[in-house]
Amino acid sequence: MSFVDLHCHVLHGLDDGSPDLATSLAMLDALAGLGITEQCVTPHQKASQYLPDLAAIDAAYAVLDAARKPHHPTLRLAAENMWDDVFYRRAAAGTVPHYAGTKAFLVEIPPPLMPPNMRERLFQFRMAGEVPVLAHPERYHGLWDNDELTAELRRCCAFVIDLGAIAGFHGKRESKMARHLLEKGFAAAVATDAHQVGDIAQAQQGLAWIDKKLGHAATVRLFDHAPRAILRGELPD
Length: 237
Description:
Blueprint lengths: L2 E3 L15 H13 L2 E6 L2 E2 L8 H14 L6 E4 L2 E3 L2 H9 L10 E5 L9 H10 L3 E5 L11 H8 L3 E5 H4 L5 H12 L5 E3 L5 H18 L1 H16 L6
Parallel strand pairs: 1-2, 2-4, 3-5, 5-6, 6-7, 7-8, 8-9
C-alpha cells in the first residue's frame, strides 16, 4: 500500500495537534503503519485561535523532517485555512497557503454556518486554476439533508472526508453524513485529520469500513489515486 494523507496536524507546538517532537514521531510511526508514504502537514490558519506565522511553521517542519526515520512518510507542507477574515484577505492578495508546489489548498468552514457567496467564490477559484479542498464536509450543517447544495459545491471543490468520522468517532450525525457522502459518490478523498496518536487507530477503522462496504478499490481511489490527482492540480470526479 502507498497512501497519501491530505490532512494531519503532526507538526508540533503550532495548534491543537501534536504538542512535542516525541508525539510527532510517534504519529509518523502510526501513519507509516497505516500505509501512508506521503504525509501532508496542515497546521491551522485560524484567526484569533491558531495562527502560527510562517517562520514558526517552517521551523517545526524543518525539525520534524530532519528527525523522521527512513520508514516514515515523506512530508509536504500545507495548511488548514479557516474561511474567515484572514482567508478573505489572503485570497484577495493571492497568498492563501497551498499544498507546497501545487495549485490545491485546504479550507474549512464553521460547522453551523455556510459563508456568504461560498459557491460563487469556489467557482472563481476553479476558474483561476485553483483546486479548493474542503476539509471534513460531513461536519457542515448546511449540507445535511441537502444533496442539491452538496452537488453544487462538489462541482467546484474536492470533498475530503475524515476517516475517524466514517468510523463513528466524531458524532452520530457526522458519521451518517460521512457515509452518505461516500455512498453517493460525493467524496473525492479521505484523510486522517490526526491530531494525536490515537486518532490514527480511529482512521484505520474508517478504512476498514470503506473496504467492507465499498470495496478495496474504493479505498485505493480515495486514499491514493484521488489525493495524488489533487496534488497534481486536478479536481477528481
